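Q: what sequence does this backbone want?
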C-alpha cells in the first residue's frame, strides 16, 4: 500500500490550498478514504472522509464549510480543497484508507505540511 500526499505549503490566513493524494497497492475504489491531521504537540485529528461512491462526504465541525473532499476512482486520487484557512489549520495532513466517517485510517501516507501564517 502506498499513499503519497502533495500540495502542502505556507499560506496566509484566508488563503487556499489544494492537497492531493495518489494511492496504489490496494483496490482504491472499494475503500472509504479520509484526511487526518496532526498539529504540533497534538494528537491525530480526523478532518474529512468520503465513501467509495465519491458522493457522500463527511467533515469535522472545525472545517465544515471551508474544506471540500473529492476522489477520482479512475485515477486512484484523492483531493482536499481547503479555503478560508486559519492559523489553527496548521498541521501535517495525511490521507488515509478507511475512516470515512471518523476515527483513524488503517493506512496513511507520510503527510504534507500545511502552515497558515502571516
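A:
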Amino acid at each position: 500500500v502506498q499513499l503519497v500526499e502533495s500540495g502542502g505549503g505556507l499560506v496566509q490566513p484566508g488563503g487556499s490550498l489544494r492537497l492531493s493524494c495518489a494511492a496504489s497497492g490496494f483496490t482504491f475504489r472499494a475503500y472509504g478514504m479520509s484526511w487526518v491531521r496532526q498539529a504540533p504537540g497534538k494528537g491525530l485529528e480526523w478532518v474529512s472522509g468520503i465513501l467509495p461512491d465519491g458522493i457522500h462526504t463527511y467533515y469535522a465541525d472545525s472545517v465544515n464549510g471551508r474544506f471540500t473532499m473529492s476522489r477520482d476512482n479512475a485515477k486512484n486520487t484523492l483531493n482536499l480543497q481547503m479555503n478560508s484557512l486559519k492559523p489553527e489549520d496548521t498541521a501535517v495532513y495525511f490521507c488515509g484508507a478507511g475512516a470515512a466517517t471518523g476515527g483513524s485510517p488503517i493506512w496513511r501516507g507520510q503527510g504534507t505540511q500545511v502552515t497558515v501564517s502571516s
